[in-house]
Amino acid sequence: MSDNTELLAKLLAAVTTIQSDQKALASAVDAINGRVNALADVKELKDAARPKTPDGTKKQVVVPESPSNEERAPPSEVSQPAQKKNSRIILTTYPGQGGIDPVIMNWGERDPAKRGPVVVARGSQTVRRRNAIGAHGGSYSIYHALALAINELKADHKPDFTNTEPAATIGPFPQWSDPKKIVAMDPYGHLAPWLYKDYIDKEGLEIRPTIAVTKAHMRLPELERSVQSGRLQVDGKIVMNESGELAVTKFAVEPVWYLPGVAERFGIDEGALRRSLFENTGGSFPELITRPDIKVFLPPIGGLTVYCFGDPAKMSDPNVKLALRVHDECNGSDVFGSDICTCRPYLLFGIEEAVREAQNGGSGVVIYFRKEGRALGEVTKYLVYNARKRGVDRASEYFKRTENIAGVKDMRFQALMPDILHWLGITKIDRMLSMSNMKHDAIVEQGIPILERVPIPDEMIPDDSRVEIDAKIHAGYFTTGKVLSMEELQAVQGRAWEDVDH
C-alpha cells in the first residue's frame, strides 16, 4: 500500500512539473508570438478663389494657354496610344528631358491661374506634364494601382465631377497665398477641377480634387445621453432631435506637401528630406532625387477630416468664440471603445463642447487626423500593449515601453498640423479642447493664439487609462490638477489581462 502511495506521489509530482513546464512553454511561445507576430456652381467657385485688385473688385481668373501638341511632343518612351499597354517601364524622369514639360507650379501665388494645378497622374496624356511626385489618394493610392492591375478600373477612366462641388463656401483667405503658412495641403484642392477645367478639356490632363466638402448628420449614443442629461439642448439646427443627432459640415483633406516648406518647417535641408523620403520608402519615389525641379509631393499617408458645427463662415470670424478639438486617430478607442486610453472620451467631450459653442453663437470644430498609434501604427501600438500588460503596467514606464519598440515615443510631429487651421481662416482659438503640449506649441508657433486650454474632465477618464494620462501630464501635458512625481507614477498601475470580472 505504501509503495502505491509513493508511486502516486511521484506521478503527481511529475504531472505538476509537466503542467508547470507547459505553462512556461506556453508563456514563452506567447511571448515569441507577440514579438514575431466645397459651392453651388462653377462661377461661384471661381469667384471664391479670385484675388482682389487694389480697388476691392475680384480679378478674372484666366487659365493660361497651354502649348500645342506639337510644341510638347512627348518622348518615345512615354508615348503610348490610349488603351494600349507599353511593356517599357519608366522608372523616373529628369529635368529638361525631351518631351517633359511640367505644368506651372508657383506655390504661394495668390492668383490660382498663376499658381497652377497639381498634376501628378502618370496617364499617357498627363505623365509628361506632371508637376508633382507621388499619387492621388494618400494611403489608398495602392488600392487604385491594384484596381488597375486586375482590370477592375479602366486606365482611361475620366472622373465626372458633376454636382460634386463643395457644399459650403470656404475662403479664400490671405493664408492661402502664404507659402510659410500652408505647406502640407493644396489650398485650392477643393476647387481644382473647376478652376483648371481648361487643362482638362484642352489637354486631357487628369486633375483631381484633394479636398472635398459635404454636409451630413452625426449620431453617437453618448450624445443622446448628453441630451437626456441636459448637457446639450435640442435646437433643431445643430442638435436636431432628442436622440442627439447633429448637423455637421465635413471637410476631407488629402496631404499635398510643398517640399521646401515642409523642410523649413522641420528645420532641415530640402535635400535631406528628399533623400530620407526616397530611401525610407523602399526607393518608391525616385523622382524625389532625379527631379529637384518638382517641389510638390503627394505622400502615401492618411489625411484628415474637419467636422464643423454651426455656420462654417464663423470659423474665420474673429468676433465670435471658437472651440477646437484636434484629435489623432485611435481606432481601438474611437471606434471600438477600448478603455486603455482617453481617446474616445476626449473626442466625445470635444464634440459636445464644440456643439455647445456653436449653439452659443460661436463656432465648434473637431479635426480628426489619421495618425494611428501616435503615427507609429496599430501593430506597434499593440506590441506596446503586450509589453505593458505582460509586465507591471506602471505610469512611470509608459513612454519607455514605446521607445523600446519604436525607438521614439511619438512620431506625429505636429509641425504640419496647423496648416488646416490656416486654410479654414482660423486666426485665434478661444477654447482648445486638448492637453497636448505639442499641439499647443505647434499652433502658437504658427501665430495662432490659444486663449484657454480645457483638459478632459476627471470623471470621463477610464480607470485603465490613468497610466496613460498621468504619464502624459508628467511629461508636459496641460492640467489644472496635480502633476505626479516619478515616485508617485510608479504607484499608478493599469489592469492586467487576468484582472477581468467574469
From TrEMBL:
CDD domains, sorted: GTP_cyclohydro2 (cd00641)
Ranges for region Disordered: 45-87
Source species taxonomy: Eukaryota, Fungi, Dikarya, Ascomycota, Pezizomycotina
Segments forming domain GTP cyclohydrolase N-terminal: 88-280
InterPro entries: GTP_CH_N, GTP_cyclohydro_II, RibA, RibA-like_sf
Keyword GTP-binding: yes
UniProt key word Hydrolase: yes
Protein name, as recorded: GTP cyclohydrolase N terminal-domain-containing protein
Family statement drawn from the similarity comment of this UniProt entry: Belongs to the GTP cyclohydrolase II family.
NCBIfam families given in the database record: PRK07198.1
Organism: Sphaerosporella brunnea
Keywords: GTP-binding, Hydrolase, Nucleotide-binding
Positions with biased composition (Basic and acidic residues): 45-58
Span of domain GTP cyclohydrolase II: 319-455
Residues spanning the signal sequence: none
GO molecular function: GTP binding; GTP cyclohydrolase II activity
GO BP terms: riboflavin biosynthetic process
A matching Pfam family: GTP_CH_N
